[in-house]
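I have been asked to look over a protein record a colleague put together. Alongside the sequence sits a line of tokens, each denoting a local backbone shape. Please read both lines and tell me whether the tokens look consistent with the sequence. I do not need a full report, just your reasoning and any doubts. I have pasted the whole thing underneath without changing anything.
>
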Amino acid sequence: MIKFEDCNWLEDAFNSINFNTLSHSIIINGPSGIGKKLLSKKIISRLTNIDKVSLNEDEVQPDIFVLNRDKILINQISYREKRSQPWDEKKGKRDLLSFINMSPVNSPSKVAVIVDADMISETIQDVLLKTLEEPPKDSYIIMTTSRPNVLLDTIYSRSQLININPLNNSQKDLWLKSIGLTDFNSYDFPSYYSPIQIYKEIEENNQSNFKEFIKILDRHFSRSESQKNIIKDIMDLNINTIIKLNFFVEFLKIILESKLRNITLSGIYNTFASYSFSNLKISNLILEINDMRKSVYLVPQINESHMLNVIMSELLISFKR
């Protein structure tokens, strides 16, 4: 398991914080898997003097309030008896604003955490804003986000923003070596994978997924097998439809960038260097796949085979040797 101390970029972010002037509202922004929760726990530990901090909602901590779930409702932020919603099964008669306005029990401060706050509605943000305007003494709210500028401007203006920048491939490779994973290379994973995502793929023995996907595309481009067999092999990969579509977009972006910036393709992309293509066709295909991805989010049961057939046909039309 990766610890805070294993991630030098998180230590740099933590050491840059001046806790004497720290805002009562903190937004930690960075790509998925960069370590926002690890940094949050380190900050909470510093503010509360609690050594072992958990962001698991099931673990009750009197001076820490955690919202870490797929969907956050307004009654989990501010509950009113007259509302028809029942009390939260996990939280009981506890909501974030009531928690923040109480005095600490065992610690010098109390901290509320909203994981993936970029998923909360504007209505909920408006409710939060009232507390941020007049924060109670010895209280802090930490919000993590994976995209910049997704919250209300008024929330950003009342918060301290901590940005964690993505690492480049060289930095990822150095980190992999530092934790003893010397047999792996970040270039064998999608460029958008964070160091911790790469570590999890290796830990779960999924490190070959992207390389296998690229190998299947290489076979398809060679036209040595039927498209039906190629699609079957892609469908058999142990990844969901969204990840497959993300892999397609990653591949096309790498290929397109190589032409636009005159970069020689190498590594797992080496065999595609001999193909020519239209920049416009590739750009349009990326847009089309992004539209498919949106459709999958809206209708998860969408026909994967049909989508793959469309994409694979477009690839054969777009790339010429």
The chain has two domains: 4-163, 208-320. The longest strand covers residues 139-145. The beta strands are 25-29, 64-67, 110-114, 139-145, 160-163, 276-277, 319-320. DSSP finds twelve helices and seven strands in the chain.
